[in-house]
Amino acid sequence: MNPSRYSLIKMVPSKFPFPKEVVYLTGFVELLIAIGILINPLQHLISIIGILLCIVLFPANIKAFIENIKFNGEPPTNLFYPLQLFYLIANKPIMK
């Protein structure tokens, strides 16, 4: 099995009974999002689906960070950067 695919499967939380299938499903959804974002009437809907997918996949990134699951030999991304970005976006003052 490809080492990067194995890393992705290890990232799936243990609550899911079929981690390999979850990885394939999310990859397929990501591909559909990449194609759908190019179709003008679907861009808004696909953007929302993409945001929801990022939120749904975030626990897998937390698991990878906590368990130090390497991807292609690289350590997982530090979670504090995206959390800081979320904080800044959520608390962004309204510009007039």
Structural write-up:
With 96 residues, the chain is mostly helical. The chain is built from four helices and no strands. The longest helix has 24 residues, at 43-66. The chain is globular and about 40 Å long. It starts with a helix and ends in a 6-residue tail after the last helix.
Produce the secondary structure layout.
Elements: H1 3-11, H2 19-36, H3 43-66, H4 80-90
> Poorly predicted ranges (pLDDT <50, ≥5 residues)?
none
Structural class category:
mainly alpha
- Element-by-element helix/strand order: HHHH
Count, helices = 4
Roughly what is the average pLDDT, rounded to an integer? 82
Distance between the termini: 54 Å
Helix coverage percent of residues? 55-70%
Gyration radius from CA atoms, angstroms: 16 Å
Major sheet details: none
Q: Count the strands? A: 0
Content of β-strand: under 5%
Shape: globular
Which key features would you list for this structure?
mainly alpha
Would you kindly provide a brief summary of this structure?
The protein has 96 residues and is mainly alpha-helical.
